[in-house]
Specification:
By secondary structure, the protein is of the alpha+beta class. The strands form four sheets. Strands 1, 2, 3, 4, 5, 6, 7, 8, 9, 10, 11, 12 and 13 form a 13-stranded mixed sheet that branches. Strands 18, 19, 20, 21, 22, 23 and 24 form a seven-stranded mixed sheet that branches. It has a four-stranded antiparallel sheet with strand order 17-25-16-26. The relative contact order is 0.10.
């Protein structure tokens, strides 16, 4: 109470630091708990494929559909297996309620025995082809407050399913996000079963029997697909354990069994852990600095106590208790900040974190956190203050340290070093996002829609297309395997003139398909030949377009008219034209070789519509909705603007930029609180010196400079230390991106100047206030 301003700064700094650390810890706890609720978690695995392509080995979690049953049938270690095929294409109808786009999956009957998704009603049985298991969330959507068990849900326009089980909603910290499950045999009934060992389109999970040797099992299954396929040197397999799915999602390669989990999300978790530690450390540094800065004011107190018989241990306990009480007050303020900040933080990280007030372990952890913080913040001041010699203090010979290097200065440098590292990181991430956003996409996103095939759209495609064009709603329409922002599929082993089989199998080709007018619809630029047009040129059913990268990869000097072949069939695909490279998938990666095939295989699930500019977008959407309602009446008009979908490519980096900026702001705020307090104390402790200088003719500007320059020197030292550290960290981060910026010197100059300006603004208030004070009053204070 005797030092209200210092107490407010101490408590505020600690509260903000503790709140930042708590929020990050809640996020970290959520990350490390992914899928840990499954009872069989120690024996659950996902089967991965390992392929050698483009000069490197790549691993992926999609397999062929026959793999799962073969594993269960032929390997005694496998207690259960299930495939999982994602779907969100069904129209779900209950009475007058209709839903589309609901995430679900086709699974084998073992799935709900392998994974612990608790039932709230019914049974986890999908043996009947017309049974469906749904979550409470979907039950609420379809049936309201009625009991959904044994009720009927119509899928599509003809098939009725009985709700045999209701699950609790899938936890947010799970890799799965389904709202319903369908029996695997229904996949065959709708014509989507694929028994080819060469087609990877489902996830496969196995539960190994307790005590099974993971490495031995991997050796057994490694060449399973090669044994069943006619293609030599096809991918191999390995089992990836559940406890590494979420955090170790970057799979590296080893020579023993084909793959092991390396880095991935765990790197982000570690980084956030370091950030949490440093934010709390910065807040504790403030406490240490301000406590030791006030040492002169408490020196006589310590001297009197020691003369009166207080030992060093008693004084240490006193100062630690003071730190503990401060930490308790700060902790209560921190929890209020956390509660107010969590909704915004959840929105940034796209999750649903909450403070578990009802959990006993949370309160134990909170108590431990406060004790740890008070010890971290209070231990150095306690030992420092308790070490004063009473004789020197009471004789008035106690002097504060004027050394060039003092613990207080080191702590200030540490604070600003971390803050500057975060500032530089924020600038680098922002520049990287802008660099990718400004990249020439190679196609026109304006007024371009992607509409998935649902219901009768595929059957009535030509009628829909004709009406959209005849009514002036669209200027061009095409159907495709995937919209222009994505690759439809990947393929290895394409053959072209002059290539050997060994070379061809090592090159990944991205695949899309079209019927006609793709270049006009998407605004692609032809650099040779012509567009595919099945309606004008019927032979174009086996025509292809190549992008420029594919032409270079295939080393074709005159590509138009030449023949290429897929690895699994005998179709002679003739090259009709070449299009300029355009961004496919991630804007941070190089453009892959792309083959756009004609409609021979009829691999279409999307139509792309280029709206006319003659009307507003709202008018076009309303008119298009009427056309789709006419030809696909059972389904709502569901569309996606391609530019909005492309923008989602930047979500992860935008989130990183926002978080880096947020934590940089926190670090700067806490550091400035401490700097403000220190500058106030320095100005107060030098008040007589300032008075003497002013009497002798010193100007207010020179006084302000005198008080500020020492702090600015510390910030400059922080800049020198932070620059190489930040460069190393951000250069390593950028290595994950093929299309990336270079880190120029201007970034470090900008961050350094920003830090200096912030520090100068923080200390200048106290400096100017002291410089403008009346020297007569300061010299007459005694």
């Amino acid at each position: 109470m005797r030092g209200k301003s210092f107490s407010i700064i101490n408590i505020s700094g600690l509260a903000i630091g503790m709140a930042g650390a708590v929020i990050i810890i809640l996020w970290l706890q959520n990350e490390v708990s992914f899928d840990k609720f499954h009872k069989n978690r120690d024996n659950l695995y996902e089967i991965y494929c390992l392929a050698h392509t483009d000069g490197k080995s790549v691993s992926f979690g999609y397999t062929s559909q026959p793999l799962g049953p073969a594993l269960k049938q032929n390997y005694p270690e496998v207690a259960a297996s299930s495939r999982f095929a994602e779907t969100n294409n069904f129209l779900m109808t209950v009475g007058e309620k209709r839903l589309t786009g609901v995430d679900g999956g086709f699974v084998d009957n073992d799935f709900l025995q392998m994974f612990s998704f608790p039932l709230v009603g019914g049974r986890s049985d999908l043996t009947n082809i017309k049974s469906i298991v749904i979550t409470e969330k979907l039950a609420k959507k379809l049936f309201g407050n009625e009991d959904a068990l044994n009720k009927i849900i119509k899928l599509g326009q003809t098939d009725n399913f009985t709700v045999t089980g209701i699950l609790k909603d899938v936890p947010q910290n799970s890799r799965f996000g389904f709202e319903y499950l369908l029996p695997w045999p229904y996949l065959k009934a709708v014509g989507d079963e694929n028994n080819s060992w060469e087609s990877n389109n489902v996830e496969t999970f196995v539960q190994l029997k307790a005590g099974s040797d993971e490495a031995a099992f991997n050796n057994k299954i490694k060449f399973l697909t090669r044994q069943r396929s006619s293609i030599k040197d096809i991918w191999t397999h390995f089992a990836f354990p559940l406890n590494r799915w979420h955090l170790y999602n970057a799979v590296e390669n080893t020579a023993d069994f084909g793959g092991r989990s390396g880095g991935g999300r765990i790197d982000t978790v570690r980084l956030f852990g370091i950030i949490a530690a440093f934010i709390l450390l910065i807040a504790c540094i403030n406490f240490m600095n301000l406590s030791t800065a006030r040492s002169e004011k408490r020196a006589k107190e310590v001297g009197i106590r020691k003369v009166a018989g207080a030992g060093k241990g008693l004084l240490i306990r006193q100062f630690l208790i003071e730190a503990f009480l401060t930490a308790i007050i700060a902790g209560m303020a921190a929890m209020l900040i956390v509660q107010l900040s969590l909704p915004a933080f959840n929105n940034i990280v796209n999750t649903q974190l909450s403070v578990p007030y009802g959990n006993t372990y949370f309160w134990l952890a909170a108590a431990g956190f406060i004790v740890f913080t008070s010890l971290l913040a209070g231990s150095y001041p306690a030992f420092y203050l308790s070490s004063f010699k009473p004789v020197s203090i009471l004789k008035g010979k106690f002097k504060k340290s004027q050394s060039a290097v003092s613990p207080r200065k080191v702590l200030v440098v540490l604070q600003f070093t971390f803050a500057i590292i975060l500032i530089i990181s924020t600038i680098v991430v922002r520049n990287q996002i802008r660099y990718a956003q400004s990249r020439d996409k190679g196609y026109s996103q304006n007024n371009l829609l992607a509409i998935g095939f649902s219901g009768d759209i595929s059957k009535n495609y030509q009628l829909i297309k004709n009406e959209l064009l005849s009514k002036g709603i669209a200027t061009s329409v095409s159907k495709n395997m995937a919209n222009i922002a994505h690759r439809g599929s990947n393929m290895w082993g394409f053959r072209w003139p002059g290539v050997s089989e060994d070379v061809a199998k090592d090159i990944t080709i991205a695949i899309n398909s079209t019927d006609a007018a793709l270049t006009k619809t998407a605004g692609l630029q032809l650099v040779a030949g012509r567009d595919i047009d099945i309606y004008t040129y019927p032979a174009d059913s086996t025509a292809v377009l190549l992008n420029e990268t594919a032409v270079k990869t295939m080393n074709l000097s005159s590509p138009v008219g030449q023949i290429i072949k897929e690895p699994y069939d005998s179709i002679n695909w003739h090259i009709a034209g070449v299009v300029k490279d355009y961004v496919i998938g991630s804007p941070y990666e190089k453009v892959p070789p792309m083959v756009i095939e004609g409609p021979k295989k009829d691999w279409f699930n999307t139509m792309q519509v280029k709206f006319s500019n003659a009307r507003t977008t709202e008018q076009n959407l309303a008119a298009a909705a009427q056309v789709f309602k006419k030809y696909n009446p059972a389904y709502p008009f569901d569309y996606q603007f391609v530019d909005e979908e492309y923008a989602r490519n930047f979500d992860s980096e935008q989130r990183t930029k926002t978080l880096a900026g947020l934590f940089a702001s926190l670090a700067i705020l806490i550091s400035c609180l401490g700097l403000f307090g220190l500058s106030a104390y320095v100005a107060e402790s030098r008040i007589k010196e300032i008075g003497v200088r002013k009497v002798l003719g010193a100007s207010s500007a020179s006084i302000a400079k005198l008080l500020s320059v020492d702090f600015i020197k510390l910030v400059i030292i922080s800049i020198v230390i932070a620059t190489p550290v930040a460069w190393y960290a951000m250069d390593k981060w950028l290595q994950d991106y093929t299309y990336r910026i270079s880190i120029g010197w201007a970034i470090f100059v900008m961050a350094g100047l920003l830090a200096i300006v912030i520090a100068l603004a923080t200390v200048s208030f106290q400096s100017i206030k002291a410089a403008l004070a009346n020297p007569v009053q300061s010299l007459r204070s005694e």
